[in-house]
Amino acid sequence: MKFKYILPVLAAxxxxxxxxxxxxxxxxxxxxxxxxxISTALTTTVTTTKAxTTTVTTTKxxxxxxxxxxxxxxxxxxxDEISLxxxxxxxxxxxxxxxxxxxxxxxxxxxxxxxxLYNGAEFTQKLQYSVVDTxxxxxxxxxxxxxxxxxxxFDLNNYVGFVDNFxxxxxxxxxxxxxxxxxxxxxxxxxxxxxxxxxVSWDLTISVVEQVPPPVxxxxxxxxxxxxQRYEGGNVRYGIxxxxxxxxxxxxxxxxxxxSFVMIxxxxxxxxxxxxxxxxxxxxxxxxxxxxxGVYFYTTDKTIEGVxxxxxxxxxxxxxxxxxxxxxxxxxxxxxxxxxxxxxxxINDVYAAFADEIRKxxxxxxxxxxxxxxxxxxxxxxxxxxxxxxxxxxxxxxxTGEYAIWQASAYGHIPGIxxxxxxxxxxxxxxxx
Length: 433
Description:
This protein is an alpha/beta fold.
């Protein structure tokens, strides 16, 4: 019974000492030390608060070096890939962002901020540099088919092809005369000059004729079995590439002839995207026959957004179909390339955009090109983006770059196809992913 009355008394004592704001003598003696003690006859509560000390540190201002040495290249070639580390030729300080790339996308005089470190502080120094174009245009077609029909307007641009590294519209001139109304042979010296004054010249002869002769096809045909035998040995396998030109293909017969893979044309672009008439059929039949399948797309589009649209269209046509081989970019319109108004950087940027879009959708891109244009058009950067499919119709290629597939002949004969077919070799030690 006594505890029934003692508890309220204790509670009242707590309220009087801790809650009323009155301090005991002990409270007063400890307050200054940051420790508060609240005491009653039956219970004691101790709360300890740590003292806080704030230290203010002042940093001495660091001045830039009075003997700064920071010199850069006086000039760089347009479109060259140059890091700040490479740009700086002399220095006595540490660069902060040496991997940053120099802007070389246009010709002229430019200024760049060079961040550097000195005594633990960061500073910036401005440097000027010039971007120049000292590279002559490249001749892609020196006059492969120089036959001109008598009585028709003559334009040398129809018979030659060229590209510049920077100028999108280099100028073609020539010395000599061509009488378009008189049959005969007319020797000329052609010259292509870019906007920076770089030029290249060569000789050719234009033949004015009554009738332009049809192309002569005197290429020997090769049986697929002989093709395999010629290149057997080593870590390789054999394939073909097909389009509407092969029409109705018996892929079971193709497989039984020793073919392991097939690259199928999905479509092409001139003024609009067009589906290859046999694509859907070829894709199904080749897959059902157990062949590894890839696709290629022929294009003349010169815009980045255009080829991205092409890539998305290809993905739509595949409709989720799993490919074992890549999706190849096929640009072959180099005979009169200047009519597209592109420089070499532009065409490489177009391919890079296509490859990027294809990868975004889970497929592997590939660059298809002949030996000639792998050397004269496609940059090292482009050839490193994805595997290369080399076209070179010789018995033994002397192309020294990297390639995963070699299209060695356009004149193959294989069971299951009526007429010619391209024949390919895949090097299994080269990645196609």
